[in-house]
Amino acid sequence: MGCNSKKIHVIKDESLGGVEREYIKNYEDIIANLVRRVSELEQQTTELEKDNERQAFKIDDLEQYCGGLKDDIETWAQDVEKVRVDVDDLAGEVRQVDDKIEMCIDDIVTLDERTEGDIVLCRSNIEVKERRCYGCRTC
C-alpha cells in the first residue's frame, strides 16, 4: 500500500453521542489533522504559559503588597501599645493630682474650721475688709 491508499476507519464521534461512524480517510488526511491539532495544542500551551507567567507576577505583586500591609499592621500595633502605656501613665498621674487636690481641699477645710472669721482671702480685684490675713504673702 502506498501513501495515497484509503482505508475505512471506525471512529467514535462524540458529537453524535458516542455513535460509531465509519470514515474513509487516507493517511495524509489523518496526519494533516493530527498536525493541525498538535499545532493548536502547542498554541494553547504557549498562551497558558504566558497567562501563568502574568499570574505569577500578579501573585508576586500581591505578596509584596500584603507584606507591606503586615508591616503596617505590626507598626500600628506597636504604636497602639505605646499609646496604651502612655494613657496608663497619664491615668496614674491624674490619680496622684486628684489625691493632692483632695488633700489641699481637706487642708483648706481644716484651716477654715480653725480660723473661722479670721481668714481673709486676698485677690487683686477683691477689696478685703477683714482684720487679718493668713497665708498670703502680698499683704
Question: What are the defining features of this structure?
Answer:
two-stranded antiparallel sheet; mainly alpha; 139 residues; single chain; rod-shaped
**Separation, N- and C-terminal Cα atoms:** 137 Å
> Spatial order of the strands in the main sheet?
1-2
Largest sheet: 2 strands, antiparallel
Approximate helicity band: 55-70%
> Structural class, from secondary structure content?
mainly alpha
Please tell me about this protein's structure.
The protein has 139 residues and is mainly α. It has one domain. 63% of the residues lie in helices and 12% in strands. Strands 1-2 form a two-stranded antiparallel ribbon. The longest helix has 88 residues. About 5% of the residues have low confidence.
State the gist of this model.
The protein has 139 residues and is mainly alpha-helical. The chain is built from 1 helix and 2 strands, in the order ββα.
Strands, helices and their partners?
Layout: E1 6-13, E2 19-26, H1 27-114
